[in-house]
């Protein structure tokens, strides 16, 4: 009976994710029926512009939602295990702050950089990747020097604070238009990822997820403490390095292409633990992938109002924040 329960739960979550994926493709200012969606996927002719909307707008957006939910959830799970902290999230090492700093530098430098460069989507993505990579490189360097995870956590927070402070200074000296553009970027957007961007984002996400699944047994060892993990033959420094790299790829890659998406990474691992009632990463890792993908797909459906679109970061916060409050009250 116990062995069949996880299988049934995984099957249920898989159908839920598939259903939300199809609903995300159908829902919007222009309704597309399930019959039309199936026809487009099988290469049949569809009247009007529905085929163009589905293939070039909604399909990449829905795939991006799945990647964002899976990446941030798995990264959050690894951070909570590494630091043994229920409220750790993928951005705790300052990767998001580094990406924000890179984007802010480009947007606030509109007066000295060519207009075509600043308005280019690739300029913001490259800037975000560079900013996240610089912070990640600093954290990786520190990970070889410090002896415990708590020190690494504090250093990551300090790097994030420094990057955030520099962004605040840039905003103080920038014009209102540049500040507005930057604030809009911080709201997050799944629709910004086109098929061209997908060719870069997808390999980054797959590499990060592959590293995370490779670390499952080591993460199980870390649950019982670093001393116990050493007794099992786990190299703490090497494991910490791989976890930081995987988290940087997942959180940094998603942030660079979609902007920051809050609360998913900290809330989803707890939802997965509550559903499957286990701490084994062999089960939790795929569970967080499905739960995270389902949540972001659901948030994207909610954000698609008939007349306007709400920021994805706002919707995810409305669902994630109450879960965090519940966690705090439960842990006392």
Keywords:
332 residues; ABC transporter involved in vitamin B12 uptake, BtuC
Description:
- There is one protein chain.
- The chain has one domain: ABC transporter involved in vitamin B12 uptake, BtuC (Orthogonal Bundle), CATH 1.10.3470.10.
- Helices cover 77% and strands 0% of the residues.
- The chain has 332 residues and is mainly alpha-helical.
- Helix 3 packs parallel to helix 9 (195-214), helix 4 packs parallel to helix 7 and helix 9 (195-214) packs antiparallel against helix 12 (236-258).
Give the ordered list of helices and strands. HHHHHHHHHHHHHHH
Radius of gyration: 20 Å
End-to-end separation in angstroms reads 34 Å
With helices defined by DSSP (H or I, 4 residues minimum), what is the helix count? 15
SS-derived structural category: mainly alpha
CATH topology (fold) name: ABC transporter involved in vitamin B12 uptake, BtuC
State the total count of DSSP E strands.
Answer: 0
Mean pLDDT: 84
What's the shape? globular
What is the total domain count? 1
- Give the biggest sheet: none
CATH superfamily: ABC transporter involved in vitamin B12 uptake, BtuC
Low-confidence spans: none
Summarize the structure.
The chain is mostly helical. Helix content is 77%, strand content 0%.
């Amino acid at each position: 009976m116990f062995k069949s329960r996880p299988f049934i739960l995984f099957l249920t979550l898989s159908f839920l994710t598939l259903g939300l994926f199809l609903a995300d493709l159908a829902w919007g200012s222009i309704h597309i029926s399930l019959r039309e969606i199936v026809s487009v996927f099988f290469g049949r002719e569809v009247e009007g512009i529905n085929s163009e909307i589905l293939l070039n707008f909604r399909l990449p957006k829905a795939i991006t939602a799945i990647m964002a939910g899976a990446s941030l959830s798995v990264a959050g799970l690894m951070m909570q295990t590494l630091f043994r902290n229920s409220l750790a999230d993928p951005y705790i090492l300052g990767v998001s702050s580094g990406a924000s700093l890179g984007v802010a530098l480009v947007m606030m430098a509109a007066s000295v950089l060519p207009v075509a460069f600043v308005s280019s989507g690739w300029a913001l993505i490259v800037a975000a990747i560079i900013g996240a990579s610089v912070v990640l490189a600093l954290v990786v360097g520190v990970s070889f020097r410090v002896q415990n995870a708590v020190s690494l956590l504090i250093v990551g927070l300090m790097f994030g604070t420094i990057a955030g402070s520099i962004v605040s200074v840039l905003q103080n000296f920038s014009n209102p238009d540049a500040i507005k553009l930057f604030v809009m970027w911080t709201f997050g957007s799944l629709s910004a990822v086109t098929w061209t961007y997908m060719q870069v984002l997808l390999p980054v996400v797959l590499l990060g997820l592959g590293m995370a699944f490779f670390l499952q047994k080591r993460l199980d060892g870390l649950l019982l403490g670093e001393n116990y993990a050493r007794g099992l033959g786990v190299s703490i420094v090497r494991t910490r390095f791989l976890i930081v790299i995987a988290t940087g790829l997942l959180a940094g890659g998603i942030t660079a292409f979609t902007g920051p998406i809050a609360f998913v990474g900290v809330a989803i691992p707890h939802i997965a633990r509550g559903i499957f009632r286990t701490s084994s990463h062999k089960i939790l890792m795929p569970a967080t992938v499905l739960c995270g993908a389902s949540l972001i797909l659901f948030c994207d459906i909610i954000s698609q109002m008939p007349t306007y679109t709400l920021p994805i970061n706002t919707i995810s916060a409305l669902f994630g924040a109450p879960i965090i409050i519940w966690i705090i009250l439960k842990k006392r």
